[in-house]
Design goal:
The complex is a heterodimer of chains A (333) and B (507).
Chain A lengths: L18 H25 L6 H26 L7 H16 L2 H5 L1 H28 L5 H19 L5 E2 L3 H8 L1 E2 L2 E2 H19 L1 H11 L1 H6 L4 H27 L1 E2 L8 H11 L11 H20 L4 H23 L1
Helix pairs in contact in A: 1-13, 1-14, 2-8, 2-11, 2-12, 2-13, 3-5, 3-6, 3-11, 5-6, 5-11, 7-11, 8-9, 9-11, 12-13, 12-14, 13-14
Chain B lengths: L2 E12 L2 E12 L3 E6 L5 H8 L7 E6 L2 E2 L5 H7 L1 E4 L11 H6 L5 E2 L3 E2 L1 H14 L15 H14 L4 E5 L7 H16 L3 E5 L3 H7 L2 E6 L2 E7 L5 H9 L3 H7 L14 E10 L3 E9 L3 E5 L6 H8 L5 E8 L2 E3 L4 H6 L2 E4 L3 H5 L6 H5 L4 H4 E2 L2 E2 L1 H15 L15 H13 L5 E5 L7 H16 L3 E5 L3 H7 L2 E6 L2 E7 L5 H9 L8
Parallel strand pairs in B: 3-10, 3-11, 6-9, 9-10, 15-22, 15-23, 18-21, 21-22
Antiparallel strand pairs in B: 1-2, 1-4, 4-5, 7-8, 11-12, 13-14, 13-16, 16-17, 19-20, 23-24
Classes of the chains: A mainly alpha (333), B alpha/beta (507).
Chain lengths: 333, 507
């Protein structure tokens, strides 16, 4: 599951003597997940409670959704630093819309617009990033730095820097609703992952995505619409970030432009890399990114639940990234 | 004759597919021994076993009079086997001296590197090969040839008994090749053996003593160069009889029915910003139009202009009589033009993608319905091309990087044939592939042309152009200067057309 990019469907079987290391490489994510779960079951108080499950699902959903988007961008050998800022922007817009006079007058339309407009704005942010990268040839890290800085600024200007609280059961369903007893956003994340997987493995766009990341010049000469593919990847990433931003706002019944999505870019990149995405492009393991998100979230939770401070948790996250990159390097041989 | 290296009964299989079957290789002390064979014959696998990159499944290796188990590249180096790779493993930003003595620096008081001594030693080693350069300058400031020689010098300074050279001349010009040959002879004179892998058979006759030929993972012949001919070696590699090849001619491009039809593509006075100033040609149905010229004469640039890679700043193109301005490659593909690019690695394959995905990359728009790829049709089509072109791969989902060069090239050729183009631009279609694959690729091109399509062929091999092309457009410095017509073109005529200065400068 950690390695589901279609180009790797058929690896040459590794020699028998390397069973352990190769198992670690291909299933490292799952093994890590199992170890964390086992540790928690044994040492973390109240870990095996339904409430714990709910908390973790609602937390992991946003990371997973953004990580899926990040995986598209990384597949083109790019990176998107603006995901957290886009979350804040989308999250700031939604309450403004359904709490406006228009939203009060037409509640149904207001809710619809509170979803549609922020997501459209998010997609536009992606368009902006994509055009900078593919048309103007700006380095992805610089191009997305622009919105990384200004996106959150715009969100704070829109809300005058205030925390916007609200109570709107329809909108909050996104963050607090349950389907079959499990949080709605967990199902949403899974559904989005399924769609993303389908796009990568079954569509022309997905094939071009991997080709552009794998060898851009060859892809262009074979007629691939390189610019459109890159712009598409950044738009998908920003759109998914927008969804994650709305979820965070819905969970809290409040929008805080200063905190929504803060440091999300790091979690998303870490999840994608732990999931097997190669920063040089050409690979898009969608479910790997989901697994990576689960691992990142569980590590955070484990440390938190066992009284380790937040700052130390950051260091732990860094160690996970180092480990993931190390395993990736070994994989390439 | 004292035996230095003896590999016997070597077996090796990759995921069940045998790459070597009872292969053997003997190298005598102080000889230059060539190892040849088609791509996929097992040369590189055998060498990688010898240098400890792969582990053999069976067989024995004896080196320098003792049985050896070489399990790592470091182990091979310690045993006295040095390998000069195509891509050099040196540090371009450090000085020549540092590169030569790296890891074995002469020291003073056991602590400080004795640089004067290191420089002196490096100069001495290099001068043995007749190279006098500033050893304190960064290695990267010198040509590839010099860098290669420095790699050899380093190997020799580490007391190697056997130096393996893998396609050493592929990136060298004529003068540099001479220098390299001088070094090889010097190595032999000082008792060092050289294992020489090359596609260029002519070279072998100039510097090798014996030659081992491999085919399909087996060692099929060991010959003394003095007593053999180029034709015999080709016959060994292909597994054919000498007489068979003699009658067939050296290439498989010639011999088609010559029935030229309507004009497919015309270019008139094309210019781009990439050193193409004035280029004209016309391609008719059933015609191969060759582009002749030296390196940098504008052949590749002309191809790129026709395919819409480089923007056209002047001149015009007519496609079946209609004016047409190519904007992008996908534009050209929609108008049923294909282009096999010159650099397979940089511009052809997507290495991590499968044979199937690489083959259908240019065809995707036609395989798509509502954005979805029709997988069944894709698989059927790929299956058909794998069979038709004789592509050797474990299955269609194998990553293309695991295929030999010739097979990769066939996949790329299939990528274009699958789009059913009316015009195919082929930039060096047989470069870097072995003799067998070359003949097959030439036959595929011939077959395609005979079905009434047109080809623009770029080839640095005069043989291929003279025998294959119906018309040759000769380029010089970005200008098409003259057109030769077959029958009647000889290699001499082509060479003189390419070499003769026509004095066409901008007015």
């Amino acid at each position: 599951m950690a390695d589901n990019s279609i180009s790797n469907g058929n690896r040459i079987a590794p020699p028998a003597t390397h069973d352990l290391t190769s198992a670690l490489r291909t299933h490292g994510g799952l093994i890590a997940l199992f170890l964390i779960l086992a540790f928690n079951a044994a040492f973390t108080p109240n870990f095996l409670q339904v409430q714990t499950l709910f908390v973790n699902i609602s937390q992991v959903a946003t990371i997973a959704i953004v990580a899926i988007g990040m995986t598209f961008v990384i597949a083109t050998a790019g990176i998107d630093l603006s995901v957290g800022a886009v979350m804040a922007l989308a999250g700031a817009l939604a309450p403004l819309i359904f709490q406006s006079e228009f939203g009060a007058a037409y509640p149904a339309l207001g809710i619809a617009a509170a979803f549609a407009v922020p997501l459209a704005v998010a997609a536009l942010c992606g368009l902006f990033n994509g055009v900078l990268v593919s048309v103007l040839n700006v380095q992805p890290i610089i191009a997305t730095l622009i919105l990384f800085i200004s996106g959150r600024g715009i969100a704070q200007v829109l809300t005058n820097g205030n925390l916007q609280t609200f109570s709107n059961p329809y909108f909050s369903y996104l963050g607090t609703g349950k389907v079959l007893g499990l949080p709605f956003q967990g199902w949403l994340a899974l559904a989005l992952a399924g769609m993303a997987f389908w796009i990568v493995t079954r569509t022309t766009f997905g094939r071009y995505l991997l080709a552009v990341g794998g060898n851009e010049r060859a892809a262009r000469l074979a007629g691939a619409p390189v610019r459109k593919v890159k712009i598409g990847a950044y738009m998908i990433c920003a759109f998914l970030s927008g969804i994650a931003g709305l979820i965070v706002v819905a969970i809290n019944s409040a929008s805080d432009a200063a905190r929504n999505g803060n440091l999300m870019e790091l979690d998303a990149i870490a999840a994608a890399v732990v999931g097997g995405a190669l920063l040089q492009g050409g690979r898009a393991p969608i479910f790997g990114a989901v697994l990576g998100a689960v691992i990142i979230q569980l590590v955070k939770y484990t440390l938190l639940a066992n009284g380790v401070e937040d700052e130390v948790a950051l260091i732990a996250k860094a160690l996970i990234i180092v480990l993931a990159v190390y395993i990736q390097q070994a994989r390439k041989e | 004759m004292q035996v230095l290296l003896s590999m016997n009964g070597i077996d090796k299989a990759f995921s069940g597919v045998p790459a070597l079957r009872q292969a053997r290789l003997d190298v005598a002390a102080g000889e230059v021994h060539a190892l040849i064979g088609q791509n996929g014959a097992g040369k590189s696998t055998l060498i990688k076993i010898l240098t400890g990159v792969y582990k053999k499944d069976g067989g024995d290796i004896a080196f320098d009079g003792r049985a050896r188990e070489i399990s790592s590249p470091g182990g091979a180096q310690a045993a006295g086997i040095a390998t000069i790779y195509q891509e050099l493993n040196l540090v371009p930003l450090r000085s020549v001296t540092e590169n030569v003595v790296m890891g074995f620096e002469p020291r003073r008081l056991g602590l400080f590197v004795d640089w004067p001594e290191a420089h002196r030693r490096t100069r001495e080693i290099l001068s043995r090969f007749g190279i006098k350069i500033d050893v304190t300058a960064p290695l990267g400031t010198y040509s590839t040839a010099i860098q290669q020689l420095v790699a050899i010098a380093r190997a020799v300074s580490l007391d190697a008994n056997l130096v393996i050279m893998d396609e050493p001349t592929s990136s060298l010009d004529d003068r540099e090749v001479e220098v390299l040959f001088g070094v090889v002879r010097e190595l032999r004179n000082s008792g060092v053996s050289v294992l020489y892998v090359s596609h260029f058979l002519d070279e072998l006759f100039r510097i090798c003593d014996r030659v081992t030929t491999m085919r399909d993972g087996r060692t099929v012949s060991v010959r003394t160069i003095k007593d053999t001919t180029k034709l015999e070696l080709i016959a060994d590699m292909l597994g054919r009889e000498v007489e068979e090849i003699e009658t067939a001619g050296m290439t498989d491009l010639g011999g088609g029915e010559k029935q030229l039809g309507d004009v497919l593509l015309e270019a008139d006075g094309l210019a781009t910003d990439r050193r193409l100033f004035d280029f004209s040609l016309s391609v008719r149905r059933g015609e191969i139009v060759g582009l002749g010229g030296l390196l940098g004469s504008g052949r590749t640039e002309a191809a790129r202009a026709l395919f819409g890679v480089d923007a056209i700043s002047q001149g015009e193109i007519r496609l079946k009589g209609e004016p047409w301005k190519p904007g992008t490659p996908s534009d050209a593909i929609r108008n049923r033009i294909g282009m096999l690019s010159e650099d397979r690695k940089a511009e052809g394959i997507v290495p991590d993608m499968s044979v199937r995905e690489n083959m259908t990359l240019a065809l995707l728009p036609a395989l798509t319905r509502n954005g979805r790829i029709e997988t069944q049709r894709e698989r059927a089509l790929v299956e058909q091309f794998i069979k038709a072109l004789g592509i050797k791969s474990a299955n269609m989902d194998q990553p293309i990087r695991e295929l030999s060069g010739g097979n990769q090239q066939k996949v790329l050729l299939a990528r274009w044939l699958a789009t059913e183009p009316e015009i195919l631009i082929l930039d060096e279609p047989t470069r870097g592939v072995d003799v067998g694959a070359k003949l097959e690729i030439q036959a595929i091109i011939r077959d395609y042309v005979d079905r009434g399509f047109g080809v623009v062929l770029i080839s640095s091999e005069f043989e291929e152009l003279v025998e294959g092309a119906d018309t040759i457009v000769v380029l010089q410095d970005g200008y098409s200067v003259t057109t030769l017509q077959n029958p009647g073109i000889t290699e001499d005529a082509l060479v003189s057309a390419i070499a003769h200065h026509h004095g066409t400068g901008p007015a």
